[in-house]
Design a protein that fits this description.
5-stranded parallel sheet; Rossmann fold; alpha/beta; 3 domains; binds flavin-adenine dinucleotide; 5 strands
Length: about 475
């Protein structure tokens, strides 16, 4: 009797690529025939505030590229639109799959979703397997000597480096694309995924999407990485990789990034590796401490009542605080969906310690606009800046936004780009126009209070208030 070929469904989520693909590789190892699917998840899409959210366009572009690549191998991408807890079991059954394989996702809501998918598939006699893909070490793999999860980055990083050996990600995981099911067998299984049918309108992101661009960007960065340590803090320079969006959606693999870092013998590459380890650290932290999604990591800070005014929050969001570097950074976020790491730290500190506004409001604003938004890194970054996190900035160490500006945008180049109404100011005045002479302001066509706002708060006074507020909470 001829044996029935074993068919697997590879459900892609945060791995929108074909190369070095853990789930697809496992699927092609396990099964004789493999179908690749993506679900436009209505439980996520329905929560997006903007119906022209750039991330939907980014995913759409990446999937179009992926679909073309699958078509070149005679297959196609099967796209569904709905709740994956319903769509994945229905599709797996309709296609006669015995297995569903996906990359593991460590966000609490994804863990719950996957548990429901396991149950629904199990009822149909279909196995669901997830495989590590988005991190080098996942929750549970990295424990301190006392067997507990890490709470501080440096010992985590040391342990990460100690545990890592070249075999951990020796070479790319290459799926056998000869096992893909022919497109003709899949036509009737895909839903329409036009923007209109998804309920969104196209809004091209500022960074081009897809696996090819991701790999090219990683290649370009090889020439930049030796200077990473020196240049990474200056937002006007292209000193960082700009790869966060690709790492977020998996249009490059974290293993490719780590392999690149390790193949370079430079201080810059080692520092860059340290940042990739921060990414693993925050995933680990979220996995072991899911309460951080809604609560402060350090519970004593949950009781803080932040007195900041709503109008200040609005001014921060719109880049109208009267602090040029803050305004430049916030306007850059709105326009491009990206913000430099130094600026994320400075604006987050400013919101929580100068405007005395709950970090969760800033976290949500970033979640709405960042193309690279990732719950673990965003929450980790915000709790770091707010001093409520695991390995946070001490509450009494508060960035002075003007000194940060002078230090990291010394010529005002970044400010000039995003706050054009100040572009004719030079020297210290572009960083702090409020003390510029009337003649200087007049010559630059700046009228404080008209063409550019007065500072909404006084940094020195607010700093003292923040320290008192957080000191009281800390003592509790
Ligand atoms: C308040 C705040 C919010 C943040 N929100 C996010 C977010 O939603 N998504 C996100 O990917 N990063 C976030 N970060 C981390 C960091 O700012 C971005 O990863 C970085 O700016 C992306 O630019 P890049 O790719 O050029 O980084 P590079 O400097 O080239 O670093 C390489 C990669 O390492 C990782 N990485 C770098 N720094 C960090 C870090 N501090 N924490 C975790 N991973 C890091 C990223 O994947 C990044 O792409 C946040 C930081 C702060 C302070």
């Amino acid at each position: 009797m001829p044996t029935v070929p074993r068919r697997a469904l590879c459900w892609i989520r945060r791995d929108l690529r074909l190369h070095d693909h853990a789930a697809l590789t496992l699927a092609t190892q396990l099964a004789d025939e493999v179908v690749v699917t993506f679900v436009f998840d209505t439980t996520i899409l329905d929560l997006l505030v903007d119906k022209d959210d750039k991330r939907v366009s980014l995913i759409h572009q990446s999937l179009q590229e992926l679909d073309s690549k699958l078509q070149r191998h005679g297959s196609k991408l099967v796209v569904r639109h709905g709740d994956p807890v319903v769509e994945i079991p229905a599709l797996a059954q309709a296609l006669g799959c015995t297995d569903v394989i996906a990359g593991r996702d460590y966000e609490p809501s994804s863990i719950l979703r996957d548990a429901s998918v396991v149950t629904a598939l199990g009822a149909a006699g279909i196995q669901f397997q997830t495989v590590k893909d988005t991190v080098i070490f996942e929750g549970g793999e990295m424990l301190s000597q006392s067997g507990t999860p890490f709470r501080v980055y440096t010992p985590y990083s040391n342990a990460w480096r100690g545990k890592f050996d070249q075999e951990t990600c020796a070479g790319p995981l290459n799926p056998d694309l000869n096992k893909l099911v022919p497109a003709a067998d899949l036509e009737s299984h895909s839903s329409s995924w036009s923007f209109e049918d998804l309920g969104f309108s196209e809004n091209s992101p500022s960074v081009p999407a897809g696996e090819d661009v991701g790999l090219a960007s990683l290649d370009r960065f090889v020439g930049v990485v030796p200077r990473y340590s020196e240049d990474r803090d200056f937002p006007a320079k292209q000193g960082t990789s700009g790869l966060s969006v690709h790492l977020r959606f998996g249009t490059i693999s974290i293993r490719d990034a780590v392999r690149m870092a390790l193949s370079q013998d430079s201080k810059g590459a080692d520092k860059w590796l340290a940042e990739l380890i921060w990414r693993d650290f925050y995933q680990d932290l979220l996995f072991h401490n899911p309460h951080v999604v809604t609560h402060a990591f350090q519970p004593q800070f949950d009781s803080v009542e932040y007195p900041g005014e709503t109008s200040w929050f609005d001014a921060w969001c719109e880049g109208q605080t009267g602090y040029p570097l803050i305004d430049a950074a916030m306007r850059c976020l709105l326009a491009t969906g990206w913000m430099h790491n130094r600026l994320r730290m400075v604006v987050a500190s400013f919101l929580t310690k100068d405007l005395l506004i709950d970090y969760r409001r800033g976290e949500s604003h970033f979640a709405r606009y960042l193309l690279d938004f990732d719950l673990a890194s965003n929450n980790g970054g915000w709790q770091w800046a707010a001093s409520t996190g695991a390995d946070a900035q001490p509450y009494f160490r508060i960035f002075n936004p003007v000194l940060q500006s002078l230090k990291f945008d010394p010529d005002g180049e970044f400010i000039r780009k995003w706050v054009p109404e100040l572009s004719m100011l030079y020297g210290k005045s572009i960083h702090w126009p409020h003390e510029a002479s009337a003649m200087e302001l007049g010559g630059a066509n700046v009228v404080i209070g008209e063409t550019y706002p007065h500072p909404i708060v006084n940094h020195h006074l607010q700093r003292d208030k923040a320290i008192r507020l957080l000191e009281t909470a800390k003592k509790q």
